[in-house]
Amino acid sequence: FAAADLKADREVVLEAVRQNGRALQHAPEGLRNSQAIVLEALRQEGQAFQTAGAMLQRMILEEPRCRTALCFCHQELLDDEDFLLAAVREHGLAIKDAPKVWKRDRKLVFEAVRQNGKALELAHDDLCDDRDLQPRRVARNRIAGKGIAAPTFMAGPARQVPNGGIDVEVSALNGTVATLRLDSGASVGALAAAIVAHFTVDGALVHLVISGAVVRPLDASRKLSHIAPSGVPCSPRSGSSSSRSSSSSSSSSTSRVSAAGPLRGRFWK
What we know:
- By secondary structure, the protein is of the alpha+beta class.
- The chain folds into two domains: about 140 residues, no CATH class; about 110 residues, no CATH class.
- It is about 40% helix and about 10% strand.
- Strand 2 and strand 3 form a beta hairpin.
- Helix 2 packs parallel to helix 3, helix 3 packs parallel to helix 6 and helix 6 runs parallel beside helix 7.
- The chain is elongated and about 75 Å long.
- This is DUF4116 domain-containing protein.
- It comes from Zooxanthella nutricula.
């Protein structure tokens, strides 16, 4: 056992949890309230789980006494949404020790499943059949969540093309512009995947802004054809026929978006 003065030493505790996340339980309360230390402990546990055998993994999932470092942190951190998001991004199974109300939060569960597909087994029963939270679907989702380091791309509304597909003009913050052609029934998630492929995005995740509204990961299944301009003018392509086509497409999209729900502020809800 470490001496009391060593247990109170921030650097000593930080090094201890890097070797074993459960060492957090022996730290003084003041250090168990440190986001950096708790997240480091969860990072170590998340890495350890990936290399554990199948039997040990199942025990961690099913045995109530097998807890994560999250259960040792200060209560104040458990009330902080941003901290909990960071926590499950380090170790998805930490949702096991999150307050019950957060186990039914779709955004938090999504991030937990993105880190570890088995995390869905630990979420509230109401979410277990949620199609947007299924591990395979989450693994294909290329939209970055709040706080994730990823490039940002701006996209205009979808425009119908004669062959039945849709064109979406996409621009990167460095000024690079590309027009991507997708199937007429393509989703927002399909657009994000196309952007990752076309621009060869490192990390395979992107922040996406469509017609002035920030897109979140759980918006991935929404159809691009349901998106109407949100106060951001889209310049039609040159030529009167293109202008008429754009106007017609915009009108059609506007009639459909009311059924899917309007964009609120600068975020989708």
